[in-house]
Amino acid sequence: MTSLIMKPFADLAEITNSLFQAVQDEQAAVTWSPAVDVYEDENQLTIVADLPGCDSKSIEMKIQGDLLWFRGERTPSYGEKAQLFCAERASGAFLRTIVLPAYVNTEAVKAHCENGVLTITLPKKAEAKPRQIAIEG
Fold first, then answer.
1. CA 122, CA 108: separation in Å to the nearest integer?
2. pLDDT value of position 18
3. Which residues 6+ apart lie within 8 Å of 37 measured at CB?
4. CA dihedral sign, ordered 22, 53, 51, 34
5. To which H or E segment does residue 30 belong?
């Protein structure tokens, strides 16, 4: 007869390790993270990211559930044969993930990249917008 021994902590550790490994694999190629501003007004949520030196065609953006993420790559301004004395500007792959609030309409997202600035706008759902309520009496 085979006995079944449950090891809940070992199972939990295995699941946790596999999740962390998946995140590490995704972020292994990431070398820098762009600065962002996230703000809202009564009509929309706006995300502004600094991506100097990035072409809009080299940026990939997706929304999955309540996560918006964008990634791309910035190549260095110097060539392979250049003798490098100082390199302070980040280059290489980047990935940025933003958790979206439930009150935005992810079906109506708009993105625009100009002069190295990516602007993403997500309108608020109608029920999230303030509305005037008349007081009787």
1. 6
2. 67
3. 46, 47, 48
4. positive
5. strand 30-32
C-alpha to C-alpha distances, 116 to 51, 95, 106, 120, nearest whole angstrom: 5, 16, 23, 13
pLDDT at 117 over 90: yes
Sheet arrangement for strand 117-123: 36-40, 44-50, 117-123, 110-114
pLDDT tens for each residue of 6-35: 566 666 677 777 666 655 555 556 788 999
Q: What pTM was estimated for this model as a whole?
A: 0.72
Is the alpha carbon torsion for 95, 37, 98, 20 positive or negative? positive
Tell me how far apart the alpha carbons of residues 129 and 35 are, in angstroms, rounded to a whole number.
28
Architecture per CATH, 30-128:
Sandwich (2.60)
Judged by DSSP in three states, 118 sits in strand
